[in-house]
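Hello, quick one for you while I still have it in my head. No rush at all, and the record is pasted right below.
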Amino acid sequence: MPGDSTNWRPRDEKSICPKWQGDRLNIKRNWSGVACCFLLFTAVCVSLTFKLKGAFFSAGYPGLGLLFFTVPGIAASFFSRGGEVIRPLMGAILAAPVCLVVMRMMFISSRTLVQELAWLLSGIFWCALGALCFLFVRRALEHRRVKVKTPSE
């Protein structure tokens, strides 16, 4: 029956959505940005938790260490194709629970769980901001290289 939706079958996968095949390949290529951000975010978190914590607190600037979270965003944005911010953000969001577990298991903290979550969420924010800053600088340099023709030329 023509109106019966139970008998409908696509001829093949490509007939349903030809763009789907290309998107699947792009997803495989773009995991490098997520993996880079995941690893660097975890490394920054662990290094700030274990090594550099005393230096910033003794200097009177405890929030200064959060600026190091821009480095994973910048690096992941460099490795992501197409200038996306979502890949570094995904990497940071995936790394946050791992960092929380590492901080709670290996380090006796005087901070509560809510304070550590707030610190990690601000790290995610700074990571995304680093990715945005990298994209801004890259677009500005590309715009500078391209000579825009005016109507008078």
